[in-house]
Amino acid sequence: MTTPPAAPKGVARPRTNWRVLLALAAIVAMIFVGLGAFDQLVSSVAVYLHLPGADLTTITAGPLPRDYWTRFVLNIFLVLLFLFLVPVRVKGSWQAHGTYAGFMVSLFAEMYGFPLTVYFLASAGYASEPGFVRYVFLYGQVVGSPIVIAGIILIYKGWKEVAFKRGTVLITDGIYKMVRHPQYLGFLLVTLGELIVWPTIPTIVLWPVLVFLYYRQGKREEAVLSEKFGEQFTEYAKKTPRFLPKIRLPRNPFRPRGGERRPS
After folding, report:
1. What pLDDT is stored for residue 1 in this prediction?
2. pLDDT value at residue 248
3. Which helix or strand (DSSP H or E) is residue 216 part of?
4. For the chain, what are the domain ranges?
5. Tens of pLDDT along 72-111?
6. R_g over Cα of the chain
7. Contact residues for 54 (Cβ-Cβ < 8 A; gap 6+)
C-alpha cells in the first residue's frame, strides 16, 4: 500500500475553515428554533380553523407535558449552540447572554419537564391545567410565536452582517441602517414571544432583567465603537436609533407643506 505524496515545499495545505462550519451550525440551530415557533403557530391556527385532530376540548382534556427531558435537553442544546456561535461587535456580552440562557432553561424546564408555575398557581386557586392550555392555544401561541420568528429574523440579519467583519469595519449596512443593535433587539423579541407563549414566574422575573442587561451592553458596545471609529460612529448614531426603528408615517397628500395654505 503506497502512501500519498507529501505536499511540495512552499505549498500550503488546505485548512478547514472553522468559522464557516460554526456559522453553518449556528444557522441550523436557528432554523430548528424557528421551526419550533412556526409549529406552535400552526397548531393554534388549526384550533381556530377547527381542523381534524385540533379540537380544543380534546387538547385541554389532557395534562400538560411532563418528564419530556430528552426534548428539554435537545431544545437547550440548540438554543445554546446558536447563542454561543452568534458573533458580537465587541466582546463582553456574555453576562446578558448568560441571563438569556437562564431564561430559556427555566422556560423549557417548565414547558417539557414539570409545569411548576401552573402547579403553584393551581394550588393557590389561580389557575388550572385546562385553563392554561386554553390560553396557550388560543392566545399565547398566536401572539407570541410571530414575535419569536421576528426576533430570529432580526438576529440572523444582524449576524449576517457581523459574522465575517467583526472588529474590522463599522457596520452600518443592511439591518444596521434601521437600528444599531438588531441582534440584542432580536434576543429580546425571542424571549418576549416565548414569555407570551408560555408565561412562568421565573421568565416574568427574568425578562425585565434581560432588557436592562442588553440595554447596558448596547451602551458599552457603543462606547467601544465610538472610541475606535470616532466621528464615523457619531454620525451613524445620530441618524440610527439604538433599539426601536423609526416609523415613518405616509405623508398626507391633502396636508399643506410648510406655511402654504390651500384655497378654500
Report:
1. 47
2. 66
3. helix 201-229
4. 19-239
5. 998 888 888 777 766 555 565 677 888 888 999 999 999 9
6. 24
7. 43, 46, 47
**How many CB atoms are closer than 10 A to CB 161?**
21
Q: CA–CA distance from 151 to each of 45, 184, 194 (Å)?
A: 20, 9, 11
pLDDT in tens, 114-138: 888 888 887 776 668 888 888 988 8
Q: Hey, is 34 helix, strand or coil? A: helix
Using CA atoms, how far residue 85 sits from 16, 18, 107, 190, in Å, is 17, 11, 21, 17
If you search the block for the grid coordinates 408560555, which residue do you land on?
A: 198
| CA nearest to 133, candidates 202, 45, 199 | 199
Cβ atoms within 10 Å, residue 155: 26
Find all residues with CB under 8 Å of 169, minimum gap 6, and list them.
none
Is domain 19-239 classified as CATH 3.40.50? Answer: no
Which three cell numbers mark 137?
392555544
Cell numbers 443593535: residue: 181
Grid cell, residue 63, equals 395534562
Alpha-carbon dihedral 65, 66, 70, 75, rounded to 10 degrees: 50
Question: What grid cell was written down for 150?
Answer: 421576528
Q: Which of 212, 91, 220 is nearest to 162 (CA)?
A: 91
